[in-house]
Amino acid sequence: MSAHDIAGDGPPCVAIIKRCSQTDSNDAATFPSFGLFLEKLSTAQPLIVFGFIEKLDERLAGFLGVMLSGLAQSDRSAEVNQKISQWMAEDKYLIQIAHYFRFAAQLDSAVLTKVLEAGIRLKNDDTVVQVLSTVFYRYKDGTSDLIEAIILPGIAYFTEKRDARWVNLAWFLPKDRSPFAALTAAQVDAVLKNLIYLRRIETHAEMVLAILADAHAVRVFDFFGDGLAYSTARDDEESYEPIPHHFYTLQKSFSSIADHAVDTVRKWFVSSDSLFQFTGGRMLSSSFPDFSAAFERKLLSYVNRNVREEIEFVVRVLSSYRGQPFLYETCKEIVRALSPEDTLLSNVQIILQSTGVVSGEFGLVEAYKQKREELLPWLSDADPKVRVFAEQYIASLDRQIAAEQRRSEEDLEMRKRMYDNPQGDVDKS
To answer: Is the Cβ–Cβ distance between 47 and 6 less than 8 Å?
Structure first.
């Protein structure tokens, strides 16, 4: 190859490479083989690649990371670091440099720190994202100073922008490879300060929170209270959901802090708050979906105070469940504690009557019958208030069963007439 080739546009293959890089693709299958080719070309023919690497167009610059990976494996690998230093001094190819270290043999935290600092200085979100992506992926290949030098400054940068989408770069990391398993309490607070800007806690964010909660369950639980406070202080009209409908993994971490959880949510409660079951109530029902013994004991401690507002708090919490049998004993204690005229007893009936999802034409009828059977022992309870409540509740259930039976039979007959004989023809046989 001549000096003219290097100084000019290069050999014919360079034109082909540039043309290939212009391909438009909307899937992930087009460029892996092209990237592999560029990496192997850079390893086998570094002189060719160094000849055109300074004159990359925007499309081909996207493949600079894989070219650097190939050059680092060539007989001219020493020149790679020189090029990187040159480009960093010019604030050039910062994203590609960060991407290169995702696959480089050695993770250079000093270089990545400088790239991050440049990205923050230039207010270039894409550069900061690429540095974080690389460090999350290669965390175990680096040193513990990556947390303070890169991860927390990168997250702080997005905190100022009220942007927490970086969780999509780290959610898939298992605990043994995640930097979030090694955070101190102060570092956890810095991460949670950012995550409050998520408009809803979905699976990706929960998986990061679950790793944090392994060692900091109390702080992560309180984070949802911070989100609730933030939701009332926001001045924009976009949707914000501080409490998820249910957890996938966090409930395991919260199972050991039942006392703290109930005491904390009690502070959120205001009497007559009709929405509490969708905030604090939902938080507790999501955190303790199986109604553990420790959780039940804590709720009963509020009932046993014989203070109506404390009992109302427990009633609102139970309203977030679906009438499961594990609620019955707590409901019975509430009935014992209230006067027979208290309006909260109607809420207890609603709690006991709740069914969740049923199926089949007579699904609700069967569900009500099952609940009736489960409450029959209350009729022989030693406390007259419990017996009176059970009599009224069972009588109400009997009426509901009869009404639902009629409605289901009518619906079934109507469907038969509509679909089995839609024309209403009379059988003349």
So the answer is: yes
- Asked whether residue 281 falls in the same domain as residue 318, the answer is yes
For 415, other C-beta atoms within 10 Å of its C-beta total 11
The per-residue DSSP string of 199-238 comes to SB--HHHHHHHHHHHHHHHHHHHHHHHHHHHHHHH--S-S
DSSP output for 7-26: HTT-SHHHHHHHHHHT---S
Under 8 Å between Cβ of 49 and 78: no
Which residues are paired to 95 by β-bridges? Answer: none
Q: Which two tokens stand for residue 318?
A: 């139970």
Using alpha carbons, select from 185, 173, 174 the residue that is nearest to residue 132: 173
277 contact partners, CB below 8 Å, separation of at least 6: 316, 317, 319, 320
The residue to which tokens 């303070």 are assigned? 148
What is the tally of structural domains in the chain? 3
Same domain, 350 and 369: no
What span, in angstroms and rounded, lies between the C-alpha atoms of 381 and 375? 11
Give the residue from 227, 254, 281 where a domain finishes: 254
Give tens-digit pLDDT for 211-268: 999 999 999 999 999 999 999 888 777 889 999 999 999 999 999 999 999 999 999 9
Q: CB of 188 within 8 A of CB of 155?
A: no
Domain with 280, as residue range(s), is 270-354
103: nearest Cα among 38, 9, 200, 10: 38
Tell me the pLDDT tens digit for each residue of 276-330: 999 999 999 999 999 999 999 999 999 999 999 999 999 999 999 999 999 999 9
Helix (H, G, I), strand (E, B) or coil at 273: coil
Question: Which residue from 245, 332, 217, 320 is spatially nearest to 275, judged by alpha carbons?
Answer: 320
Q: Among candidates 295, 405, 397, 408, which has minimal Cα distance to 355?
A: 397
